[in-house]
Write a structure and sequence with these properties.
Layout (H helix, E strand, L loop, with lengths): L1 H18 L11 E7 L5 H13 E2 L14 E2 L1 E7 L3 H9 L5 E5 H9 L13 E6 L3 E8 L14 E3 L6 H12 L8 E3 L3 H10 L4 E6 L4 H7 L4 E3 L4 H10 L4 E5 L10 E6 L1 E6 L4 H13 L2 H8 L8 H4 L9 H9 L6
Parallel strand pairs: 1-4, 1-5, 2-3, 8-9, 8-10
Antiparallel strand pairs: 5-14, 6-14, 7-10, 7-11, 7-13, 12-13
Helix pairs in contact: 2-10, 9-12
Length: 338
């Protein structure tokens, strides 16, 4: 249904543009810009919908200084829900998306041709526009479970995220750093909503989820049953740091979820990526609209548990190369040295 609505809206925009082409003489030409996101219950989708609304400014719209939309003139951005970061990047490779929101570790793997991208080779023309809301690894178990560490998951029924999601790939890496191979576990590949329901019914022993705390699926589940988060620390966490230089130490603060104490874990950024050959002026305008339009207000209003990142955090560091259009904006804004 949601996909049908998106297609219908696109058709409507195209019809309007065609019918009003003469009336809108002097308006910038219409440009569609697709943004790949994650499942509708995850942070990436909430970010993509806010961004698409904030950077868009269809032909005929009032200028920003006259109470109109403060997006890029002529641009219509459309958020598309997909399985996750890996699926998004493969869709970009097939030409189905102009851009995508992906986790930093997945962008790093794609750029270097590692992990799930080893058969496609290094995607060296991948570029980043911005860092967005950081996301944290959650490993959730019932409070009464006898599972007290990741190594205790041996032989258990675990959801490691949907196929095509970055959560799945990171989960398997975390399990390996704890000396657990897929054959040692009963793995399920589920999206956050179904995985939470399965844990509640007793059909799962644990679930992995990567998202900006508090993750709605976990917060809602914590209101239905008592939960714990497994810590990720010590040698396994240090191994992750050696694999991905941008992964950072994190602590999910006690009380973030009902009844759950502070738990050590890791976090990383969500990055907005495009191809290097995307028009520099367009990307400069998009980057400016990302940070100077209504994007943050839209996100914060619709996601009261979260806060849109500060532009100073948004300047990409320790990641794949930045798109030159984004670089130009950050330099002109005084956020990046020339």
């Amino acid at each position: 249904m949601k996909q049908s609505i998106r297609i219908a809206l696109l058709s409507l925009f195209m019809t309007i543009a065609g019918q009003t082409g003469q009336a809108l003489a002097g308006e910038p030409r219409l440009t569609f810009f697709r943004i790949g996101a994650g499942p509708t219950t995850e942070t990436l989708y909430a970010l993509s919908t806010a961004i698409s609304a904030g950077i868009s400014r269809p032909p005929g719209s009032l200028p920003c200084n006259e109470g109109g939309v403060c997006g890029v003139p002529g641009l219509i951005a459309v958020a598309q829900s997909r399985s996750g970061s890996i699926d998004n990047l493969f869709a970009m490779m097939r030409g189905e998306l102009e851009s995508a929101l992906v986790r930093a570790d997945v962008a790093f793997q794609a750029y270097h041709g590692g992990g799930p991208f080893k058969y496609e080779g290094a995607q060296e023309n991948l570029r980043v526009i911005a860092n967005l809301t950081p996301v944290s690894l959650h490993i959730v178990v019932p409070a009464g479970s006898d599972i007290n560490s990741v190594r205790d998951l041996r032989g258990k029924r675990i959801s490691v995220g949907a196929r095509g999601s970055g959560t799945r790939d990171l989960s398997l890496i975390v399990l390996r750093t704890n000396s657990l191979a897929p054959r040692d576990l009963s793995l399920r590949y589920m999206k956050p909503g179904p995985a939470s329901d399965a844990l509640y019914r007793g059909d799962l022993d644990a679930l992995f989820l990567v998202g900006a705390a508090p993750v709605d699926a976990i917060a809602d589940l914590a209101e239905r049953m008592e939960l714990r988060l497994l810590p990720l620390e010590g040698y396994p966490r240090r191994q992750l740091f050696s694999l991905f230089p941008f992964i950072e130490t994190d602590a999910i603060i006690g009380g973030t979820y009902e009844g759950i104490k502070e738990t050590q874990t890791v976090k990383m950024g969500v990055q907005w990526v495009v191809w290097q050959d995307t028009d520099e002026t367009l990307i400069e305008q998009i980057t400016q609209a990302l940070w100077q339009s209504d994007t943050s207000a839209l996100f914060n209003r619709n996601n009261p548990r979260h806060t849109f990142p500060d532009p100073r955090y948004g300047v990409p560091e320790k990641s794949i190369p930045m798109h030159p259009g984004a670089t130009r904006y950050y330099q002109q804004a005084g956020l990046l040295a020339p």
